[in-house]
Specification:
The chain has ten helices and eight strands. It has about 300 residues and is of the alpha/beta class. The radius of gyration is 22 Å and the shape is elongated.
Amino acid sequence: MINTNFKSVLELIRTFSSEQVCIDYLEQMRWGGIVESPFDPESKIYKCSNNRYRCKNTGKYFNVKTGTMFENTKISLQKWFLAIWLLTSGKKGISSVQLAKDIGVTQKTAWFLSHRIRECFGIENSHELEGDIECDETFIGGKNKNRHSRKKVKYSEGRNFPDKVPVMGMLQRGGKMNAFVIESTAKSNIQPLIRRYVNRENTRLISDEWSGYNGLNRAYYHVVVDHSKKEYVNAKDKTIHTNSIEGCWKILKNSIYGIYNSVSRKHLQRYVNEFLYRFNLRSTPDHTKFVYLLRKSKVRTKYKSLIL
C-alpha cells in the first residue's frame, strides 16, 4: 500500500506518479485485494483488459471508478487527486478559474469537477451533537447598500430577506458543526433540524431571542441571549452566548465573498458542505483529509443535475 503521509503538493505528485499508480491505489482502498461488483456483490468477477472487470451475474463491465465521483470521467486521476488536495487543504477554498490553471483543464471542466468533489463533502454534515450547542442563522447574499438604486430591495420586518439565502447552523462547542440551507427562518424550518441532529440528553441549547426557537424548552434545556437588548454575553453566566457560531459564519462568508464572489441558492449547500469539511476536520492533517475523502467518494454527480 502506498504511503500517503505526504505534506505538500510536490510529495503528492511524486507519490501518484502515474495513472496506473492512482488506479492501483483506489482499487486497494476500495476492495482491499478482493474485487467486488457494484451491481451484484455476490457475483463472480472476471478481470478484463484496461483495468476493467466483468460481473458474471449481470454481464456488466465496471472499473474502480464505477459508482464514485470519478465515474465516466475523461480527466486523469492524477488531476483529480491534485484537485481534491487543493480543495481539502486550502484555508478558504479555490475558485474554478484558479483550479483550471493549477491542474491544466478548462474553467468549465474545473467547475464541474469541483462540484463533484463538493458533493462528497456532505459526509461531514450529519453529526449527532450534544453538550453546549449554539444555534444561529445567517444570510448569504449581496449587501443592499452596494446595489444600484434601481436594484435595491425593500426589506420587510423579521429575518427573511427576498434577496438573500438563509443558512441555519448548530455548533457543538469544541466539536463538530452542521449547517443547512433553508427556505426561511420560520420555526417549521429550524426546529426539525435541531430535533434531528441535537441529542436531548446532556445538552444545553443556546440561541438568540428569534421566535423560530420558541417552544424548544419543552424538549431541551434551552437558554437565550437577547440580542435585541444588545446582550451578546449573558451578564450572569458568561458561557451563554452564540459568539462561536457567529465566528464560523464569518469564515464561511469570507470564503464565499473572497474566493467565489457570489453563489446561487441552487449550489450554496455544496459550498456550505465544503466549509464544514474543513472546519470539522480543522485539527486533522491535510493528508488524512485527502485520504478520508477518497474513502467516502461513492457519490456521483451528473453535469445535467448541476445546470438544470
